[in-house]
Amino acid sequence: MEMYSNNMQGWSFFFYLCMCGAICESLHYSVPEEKKTGSLVANVLRDLKVDVKGLSARRARLVSEGTKPYFQLDPHSGDVILQDRIDREALCGQKDPCFLLSELVLENPLRVHRMEVEIEDVNDNSPQFFKKEFLFEIPEQTPINTRFPLESAEDSDRGENAVQNYTLSPNDHFRLNEQSHNDGTKFAELVLEKQLDHEKETRLFLILSAVDGGIPKRTGTAQIIIEVLDSNDNVPHFDKSEYKVKLMENSQPGSPVAQMEATDRDFGSNAEITYSFSQVPDNIQRIFNLNKYTGELTVAENIDYEINQNYAINIKATDGGGLSAYCKVIVEVEDRNDNAPEVTLTSLTSPLPEDSPPDTVVALFRVTDRDSGDNGRTACTTEANLPFVLKSSGNNYYQLVTQQPLDRERASEYNITITATDRGSPRLSSSRIFNIQISDINDNAPVFEKSLYDMQLWENNIPGLLIGLVHAKDPDMAQNARVTYSLLPGKVSGQPVSSYVSINSETGNLYAIRSLDYEQIKNFQVSVRAVDSGSPPLSSEVKVQVVIVDENDNAPFILYPLQNGTSPSNDLVPRGAEAGYLVTKVVAVDRDSGQNSWLSYELLKATEPGLFSVGAQNGEVKTMRPINQRDAFRQKLIIGVRDNGHPPQSTSATLSILLVDGFSDPYMKMVDIPKDEVAVEEDRSLTLYLVICLAAISFIFLVSVTVFIAITIQKRRKFMDMSTLNFPGGPNFQENCGDTCAGTLSRAYNYEVCLAGGSLSSEFKFLRPLFPVFSVEPAQNQGNSRISSASQDVPSHQEENQLINQVTL
Ligand SMILES: *[C@@H]1O[C@H](CO)[C@@H](O)[C@H](O)[C@H]1NC(C)=O
Ligand SMILES: *[C@@H]1O[C@H](CO)[C@@H](O)[C@H](O)[C@H]1NC(C)=O
Ligand SMILES: *[C@@H]1O[C@H](CO)[C@@H](O)[C@H](O)[C@H]1NC(C)=O
């Protein structure tokens, strides 16, 4: 089936014929595109109903319409031959069907046949995508079944040869869904079938293929790049859900506790983790510091085991997207020995009586240590050498008990140091001082400072004079040491002691009650008792020896020559006596003693001065020179005798001496006898004088006694008459005064009431202190007498006697 090519003239001719309506019989042929040049398209002989001769005779020819002549008619065979390759797509584009029109012209008769050659499509084009690559950015959390339309592929071919199917390279996440546009063209869309995960695949590479329906099929591919966008789909993750750490107590602020590590598989800000406390009480948050970014837990404040032994801290890790994970940090605090033991006193017995028996509980206390374990195990000690000992009574309680007898007088208080030590390392200890006072018990009697007191008292003292004092010490305390003194009853030369001395019960001062005379009593002894005020009282006694000291109260008394006579005796001295002749000796005595009785003699006055001398010591009167004739017969000497007291007392003696020439018998005797015999003679005469003296004194004494008795009897009668009159306010000697108060000074004054004779009214004639010189001595009468209003009808006989005595005094 070849066609003739024609030219412009042919076409115009053809149109002319057509208008004439001569011909217009059309022929239809088809040929696939892309056939080789020279290929047969069709044979027109049969359709034209002409033979080969006729054909060539009638000058058959092909005239292409306008376009480039693709066909050629072979007039010898009637074949239409392809003159050039035909590309349907270039010729017609998307026009369908695609025809190439030609005129087959025959002459003689002119006949024109229309020839339509349909160009059949051949699958010579592959589907083609607009771009080689398609990029999709899909968040990983895009829901399943989300659709992503894809661009269609283009295929120039038509019909079956156009794109029929799309395929997708095998993958886990997407399938392809084909859809048709309204115009029937197909397109595909990606349908998400399985969740994307950025953490697994950040990018997917898919091959999209478009397949046409030709035979063989042609495909076009494009790459689909799916960028999986991260979304915060991952929760941070701690490497451990629980961190267990041990932390030393008192760790320095800043020391690390734990390092938390949380990871997040997301990216970017979704993986930025910050750490924070989660529901942690404020007080714990203060103690620990959490680094927000690093997750490091450090110590912020002092960690005290005693406050808390462990902490459970919830920590939250949050990523930038707000997702959180939690973990728990368990901090176990380890004890350190940072607390010293404490001594807590429960009870203390102070003051403690000194007579407490051994094992008396003095103090009860408890030792505590806030640490634990060995750090909290305590031991307790106290000083050695104490009368106290520690006893443990379990449960950290201790008792301090007495171990030995106590003596307040040795130690009146104790400061007991209790030291408690723990077993930690280093050891800590603390101590506490218990002050224990020992209270007094009257266990000491008063003790006098001396075992014997010697006191002196000058005679002729005034009554009430302080003799001296005794003092007893009592080592006890307060009442137990308050000492009072008293005199023990006793007698001094037959009279009660209390009539001689009294004692101040408080001060121990001893007072003489009466004036004493050395010449009557030289010493006496009293016993003093000291009693403390304890209960029961304790006492001790001491002897006081009172020595009366002599005073020079007596003048020398001259025994020879006698001084009372009207005519003193004369001593004879022969005129021929040599110098140094012993004339006589003045004899004097002094009733005082000691120095007061040391006598010295001196010549005060002499008729013939220079003739006689007196021995200062012995009172011997001697001649100083030989006697001459001019010396008077009668010589008178006044000799002074002086004692050695202060002040001295003296007397004088008058001595008469006769100077004789010859010796008459009596004188001779005296002269002849040797000196010794003279002395004996003198002694004899002295003895004689003494005897005479004594007799005279005795006589005077007797007389005076008699007179005294007579007067006494006289007065007694008078008194009896008065006392029977029963006057009130009479002296009451039965005053209730026991032994104990006898002799104390405050009560030592006795008073005597003398009533005016005959007057019965209470009128005092005089009232004077009286220091009694009792001759009778019932103890109860030694006490004071005082003016008493108690009526005493008749004084006892003894009282009468006393009264009499007093009155006579
Ligand atoms: C291609 O598409 C046709 C109809 O559109 C269908 O019948 C055929 O099964 C498809 N081929 C493949 C491989 O999907
Ligand atoms: C005991 O302690 C007290 C108070 O510190 C002190 O006054 C006293 O002298 C102490 N006594 C002894 C016996 O150390
Ligand atoms: C003088 O005293 C002595 C002795 O005392 C006595 O014997 C004598 O009689 C007295 N003489 C006179 C005159 O009193």
The CATH class label of the largest domain is: Mainly Beta
* Morphology call: rod-shaped
Percent strand equals 35-45%
Q: Widest sheet: strand order?
A: 1-7-6-3
Query: Which radius of gyration do the C-alpha atoms yield?
Result: 85 Å
Q: What is the CATH architecture annotation of the largest domain? A: Sandwich
Which ligands occur here? 2-acetamido-2-deoxy-beta-D-glucopyranose
Figure out the total of helices: 10
- Summed over residues and divided by their number, the pLDDT gives a mean of 80
Span between N and C termini? 212 Å
Unreliable spans are 1-8, 667-677, 723-809
Number of domains: 6
CATH fold type of the largest domain:
Immunoglobulin-like
Q: Helix/strand-derived class? A: mainly beta
Largest sheet, in brief, is: 4 strands, mixed
Membrane topology: Single-pass type I membrane protein
Main location: membrane
Organism: Eublepharis macularius (Leopard gecko)
Pfam families: Cadherin, Cadherin_2, Cadherin_C_2
Q: What does this entry look like structurally?
A:
GO terms for molecular function: calcium ion binding. Residues 1-26 form the signal peptide. This protein is mainly beta and 809 residues long. The protein has six domains: 2-120, Immunoglobulin-like, CATH 2.60.40; 133-334, Immunoglobulin-like; 342-439, Cadherins (Immunoglobulin-like), CATH 2.60.40.60; 447-549, Immunoglobulin-like (Sandwich); 557-673, Sandwich (Immunoglobulin-like), CATH 2.60.40; 687-808, no CATH class. Strands 1-7-6-3 form a four-stranded mixed β-sheet. Strands 9-16-15-12 form a four-stranded mixed β-sheet, with no helix packed on it. A hairpin with a 6-residue loop joins β52 and β53 (650-660). Residues 1-8, 667-677 and 723-809 have low confidence and may be disordered. The protein binds 2-acetamido-2-deoxy-beta-D-glucopyranose (3 copies). Residues 562, 564-566, 692-693, 696 line the site of one 2-acetamido-2-deoxy-beta-D-glucopyranose. One 2-acetamido-2-deoxy-beta-D-glucopyranose (NAG) binds at residues 413, 415, 435.
